[in-house]
Amino acid sequence: MPETSDRKDDHIRIIEEEDVETAGTGFADVDLVHEALPEIHRDEIDTTTTLFGHELAAPIVIESMTGGHANTTKLNRALAEAAQETNVAMGVGSQRAGLELDDEGVLESYTVVREVAPDALLYGNVGAAQLLEYDVADVEAAVEMIDADAMAVHLNFLQEAVQPEGDVDARGCLAEIERVASELSVPVVVKETGNGISRATATRLADAGVDAIDVAGQGGTTWSGIESYRAAAVGASRQEQVGQLFRAWGVPTAVSTIESATVHDRVITSGGVRSGLDIAKAIALGAHAAGLAKPFLGPAGRGTDAVVDLIETLTLELTTAMFVTGSASIAELRETDYVVCGRTKEYLDERSR
């Protein structure tokens, strides 16, 4: 299946070269209430948190995006080295290519992460659609490939629907997710890929026993848009049009965070997270950590130091938000006051009827 590997390379190129950003996360409608008398020392604020039994220096996840093509090995090395140095979490891109292709270069694009990050919290990645073909032993092979601490199962059915070669059979995926969550040797995270998770879906996943939900809401990188560019390149005009039509489809990230956190006690927020203030807002809305993907891509191309610099900037922004809300710890930040206005409030009000 060489096209799987080539597709991964296409994705990185399109993200770097084309307009694949959308607005609408809802974070602009969320205000944390200012504390004029925080009564804490900023330099003593504790940003540590625990995820899957690992203590992280900050609630930051380098989201799944790379791996599956030899050209991505350099990127994954830089990302993993930075995760090791700063003690944040990292996920790899879909491991389908590594499981199905007999190619040492492809395999190295994944295995490099544990080689350079022996102590970091790393999680693997397989697609929900592939669970219809894989048994638990196959998913365990993905765990072993990177000595993963957790495994993400990604939901990307809108993306698949836009791909000319996409897998659009979603029947039976929930039962397979439940089976893997029950039998796999490591915790299972179910993550969307930019279109969000509603309260009803989060409830079904919680009932299925998944260990965490990564909402990956609407806003930020649009995979529908990415696949639209790919479709255009191969002359698939209908898929190109569908991809553009649905490029801003989904549950906004802020809404998805709030709804998922009401039914599951471990939520990761991603989807248009672009600053430490966004991370702070996500945690106030109920998340345990927040993840970014595209913002790390450019720095990864420049090397480990650039990735570390971004993580340190995000952490300072997060710490500042904690300081001016009087939050001495992540636990306190989760209890801080916030106000929701605008379209996000309207969306939530309509959803609560």
UniProtKB/TrEMBL annotation:
CDD domains the record matches: IDI-2_FMN
Names of required cofactors: Mg(2+); FMN; NADPH
Residues the entry annotates as binding FMN: 64-66, 94, 125, 191, 221, 272-274, 293-294
Protein name per its UniProtKB record: Isopentenyl-diphosphate delta-isomerase
EC number(s) from the headed UniProt entry: 5.3.3.2
Superkingdom of the source species: Archaea
Single GO MF descriptor: FMN binding
Binding residues for substrate: 7-8, 94-96, 159
An example Gene Ontology biological process: isoprenoid biosynthetic process
HAMAP family linked: Idi_2
Quaternary structure annotation from Swiss-Prot or TrEMBL: Homooctamer. Dimer of tetramers.
Positions of the FMN-dependent dehydrogenase domain: 23-95, 168-336
Catalytic activity: isopentenyl diphosphate = dimethylallyl diphosphate
Known function: Involved in the biosynthesis of isoprenoids. Catalyzes the 1,3-allylic rearrangement of the homoallylic substrate isopentenyl (IPP) to its allylic isomer, dimethylallyl diphosphate (DMAPP).
Keywords in alphabetical order: Cytoplasm, Flavoprotein, FMN, Isomerase, Isoprene biosynthesis, Magnesium, Metal-binding, NADP
Root EC class: isomerase
GO cellular component: cytoplasm
InterPro entries linked to this entry: Aldolase_TIM (IPR013785), FMN-dep_DH (IPR000262), IPdP_isomerase (IPR011179)
Location of this chain's protein in the cell: Cytoplasm
Binding of Mg(2+), residues: 160
Organism (species): Natrialba asiatica (strain ATCC 700177 / DSM 12278 / JCM 9576 / FERM P-10747 / NBRC 102637 / 172P1)
